[in-house]
Amino acid sequence: MDTRKPTAGLSQACYGFAIEGTYKDCVPYGNGHINDTYLLTYQQNGQEHAYILQHMNKTIFTDPEALMENIIGVTGFLKEKIMAAGGNPQRETLDFVFTADGKPYYKDGFGEYWRTYHYIDHVYALDQVKDPEDFYQSALSFGRFQQMLADFPAETLHETIPNFHNTAVRFGNFEKAVAEDICGRAAGIQDEIQFVKQRFDLACALGNLQDQGKIPLRVTHNDTKSNNVLIDEATGKGLCVIDLDTVMPGLSVNDFGDSIRFGASTAAEDEKDLSKVSCSMELYEAYVKGFLEGCGGRLTEKEILSLPLGAKVMTYECGMRFLTDYLSGDTYFKIHRPEHNLDRARTQFKLVADMESKWEQMQAIVQKYIDQ
Predict the structure, then answer these.
(1) What is the pLDDT of residues 254-302, one digit of tens each?
(2) What is the DSSP pairing of strand 238-241 with strand 218-220?
(3) CA 45 vs CA 21, 190, 355, 359: distances in Å
(4) d(C-alpha 116, C-alpha 196), whole Å
(5) What is the mean pLDDT of residues 173-187?
(6) Distance CA 250, CA 105 (A)
(7) Which helix (H) or strand (E) holds 39?
(8) CATH assignment of 5-120, given 3.40.720, 3.30.200, 2.40.50, 3.40.50?
(9) Cα separation of 164 and 301, whole Å?
């Protein structure tokens, strides 16, 4: 691989969009697992204006043009809803900058794809939830995302990553990784492998409900970690849902579940000390309350009753994905130490076990908000 290409491509991308003014600076930004992100600064009329510039990962997102078609379609729809409600569409959803020839992406001389959008200032994201009010605001935001897009025709969106939350397919990938064991790691993680295999029923649970017509297909975010909501510094309220790469047809309960597995955990996603890892029922209830309020009555009763199952399935699926990547040589998620993906998998499995021990409580919390 020519390691000079990303640097050269970045230089081209800094000038690739129809941004008025003079280029000032471009520096790495954030800590995302998949795309490379930069803070791009231009000077316009004596003032500096900031943008987010991203190099889109073609290994993961094999059709960047279709991906951007999804994003522009959804953000355009959201802008109309936001304006109709008297909101600010430049701050409450991502506002993309196009190229001079009208495209929402720039293709550099090496065939790599880039995009840029206006930087939203005076906000913060939650890398780890510590405050139930913040988690409630995150839930409201993702619930409103569901509510505003309830009328968007989900079937018209491209599937940017095929079978992304098809947990049964993920299980098949996991079994293949175990069988091939290309890094010779399987022997040392038999407990984790058996944990996954013993819960095969979880891999099929939500797919069966969808196949039976019991829960509907919706426009979903599919990566609803709390750090994908920007919180307004001035008001402390959820402002904008970001990271829209995986917006595609899906299940509302998956969006709910991914939020719980990330945000209701009492420890970081890669915590090594598993004694610190549990699912906080206080945070779980705060999210249930906020998500249902944000959805504004657009979910069916079966979807609402399936929310606890969504939490358990998504936590199980994510742990399985981390373990699969560890077995396969860490080719998907960025790692910062040799057993990083294994540590991530173990935290997810600890959360699944904790949810199993609190299952009746999780169901009762959901029922409480149905009965209100």
Answers:
(1) 999 999 998 999 999 999 999 999 999 999 999 999 999 999 999 999 9
(2) unpaired
(3) 7, 62, 55, 58
(4) 39
(5) 98
(6) 25
(7) strand 36-44
(8) 3.30.200
(9) 25
